[in-house]
Design brief:
mainly alpha; globular
């Protein structure tokens, strides 16, 4: 079903892309008041890590942005114009929703943050995003070792693309569950944090 030579070439190309890819810094985000059409274009440029084969599935549209505003996941535009704060929220939402539900994203980045709070949160996220992309590329390189023709011991390594697909889906599911579990612990203590059984001295 799969051509391993093609898979290897695609993986090498994607790895190089992920190693270079960076979200824009806070200062690089325009703060001049963009209209919706301009926002959609710029977001597609900033979040350009979908494979070309999937780009026709429009994951950033005016309708989705309007929905984020309507459901108060982000602040309202100012006279139909979107500034740096709005675009930063959209970058965070659109990249995080690959792994979190919108309700949990709202807990992580509430729409009531001040500009200073958002600036700090966004800048930290940009750094963490780059680190996570690098880590992910390393894990893919290890898992696809037999296909890429290098022998580095790794439990999930396989020369069958079907195995890599299944393992990636499972790891992605566990990663999402971990993120959700951590978010749900916010504000809780060891006494109120659930049904843990703890032996106290």
């Amino acid at each position: 079903m799969y051509d391993n030579a093609l898979i290897a070439a695609k993986l090498r190309r994607w790895e190089k892309y992920l190693e270079r890819y960076r979200l824009p810094s806070w200062e690089e985000i325009p703060d001049i008041g963009l209209y919706m059409e301009q926002v959609v274009v710029i977001l597609k440029q900033y979040l350009d890590y979908l494979p070309p084969e999937l780009k026709e599935e429009q994951f950033i549209t005016a309708a989705t942005i309007n929905n984020y505003v309507r459901t108060k996941i982000m602040p309202m535009p100012v006279r139909k114009r979107y500034y740096r704060v709005h675009i930063a929220y959209l970058i965070l939402i659109c990249s995080l929703k690959q792994g979190l539900s919108l309700s949990l994203i709202q807990k992580l980045i509430p729409p009531t943050m001040t500009e200073e709070e958002l600036h700090a949160a966004y800048s930290a996220y940009v750094t963490r995003h780059a680190q996570a992309a690098h880590y992910f590329a390393q894990q893919v390189r290890l898992a696809a070792g037999p296909i890429l023709q290098h022998d580095i011991p790794f439990e999930l390594a396989s020369d069958r693309p079907e195995d890599l697909i299944a393992a990636s889906a499972v790891v992605g599911g566990f990663a999402r569950l971990f993120a959700e579990k951590m978010l749900l612990l916010e504000g809780k203590t060891i006494e109120t944090g659930g049904d843990l059984t703890i032996e106290r001295k």
